[in-house]
Amino acid sequence: MTLPAVTTLLLERAQGVLTITLNRPDVRNAMSLAMVEELRAVLRTSAADASIRALVLRGAGGHFCAGGDIKDMAGARARAQTDGEDAYRHLNRAFGALLEDAQNAPQVLIAVLEGAVLGGGFGLACVSDIAIAQSGAKFGLPETSLGIIPAQIAPFVVKRIGLTQTRRLALTAARFDGAEALRLGLVHFAEAEVEERLAQVLEQVRQCAPGANAATKALLLATENEPLNTLLDEAAGLFAAAVVGEEGVEGTMAFMQKRKPGWAV
């Protein structure tokens, strides 16, 4: 499947992995509305492409993402002269929609976090399935120090690290490094060099059936909203379908024959 044309991102596809690089290094990859729209378009396209098994999200120029683009805020301020608060509401809600899309992507979403991981960048880290931080990366929620609020990212941060820690970080705008991000449970790894860990994680992902991974991810996310009894009924149906499905049959046969299944490339 052909990926959409982009100007704020770099896209590289190899061995079932789509690497999406935020590419505005001159502003530490600050998230413009154009970048948000391009990311959503890439996620929509890749979601329908079964050959893409993992998404790697990272930033160019030594930084992940420094948050929202101040120029976009200025543009919204100009539009607000005629549109009122709706100009700001549209700009803010668009980023929340991106976070929803990223969280619900059927592929494994891996965030590689270097340099600035602030505001919206922090939010993107929180919707990843696996987060790998460079030890010296700088994390923070600076919104309140700017007189604004972390409106769209707040629910995702709470889900990731809990209400108590989110309150502390959001209400102090405190900065912290990769080691502290690991302690908080925001990231899964904090490394001096991230590439070796990324290669290891991708190798692990390739051992898992892509359809089973997608179904498992959806099931895990559903635990946040659905009643337990309903969820267990649905899960039983999903399990039955998986057992007799193509991946289930191949996985079982591979185990019996003491070989790798076809997807384990």
From TrEMBL:
<dbReference type="GO" id="GO:0008300">
    <property type="term" value="P:isoprenoid catabolic process"/>
</dbReference>
<comment type="similarity">
    <text>Belongs to the enoyl-CoA hydratase/isomerase family.</text>
</comment>
<dbReference type="InterPro" id="IPR014748">
    <property type="entry name" value="Enoyl-CoA_hydra_C"/>
</dbReference>
<protein>
    <submittedName>
        <fullName>Isohexenylglutaconyl-CoA hydratase</fullName>
    </submittedName>
</protein>
<dbReference type="Pfam" id="PF00378">
    <property type="entry name" value="ECH_1"/>
</dbReference>
<dbReference type="InterPro" id="IPR029045">
    <property type="entry name" value="ClpP/crotonase-like_dom_sf"/>
</dbReference>
<dbReference type="InterPro" id="IPR001753">
    <property type="entry name" value="Enoyl-CoA_hydra/iso"/>
</dbReference>
<dbReference type="GO" id="GO:0003824">
    <property type="term" value="F:catalytic activity"/>
</dbReference>
<dbReference type="InterPro" id="IPR051683">
    <property type="entry name" value="Enoyl-CoA_Hydratase/Isomerase"/>
</dbReference>
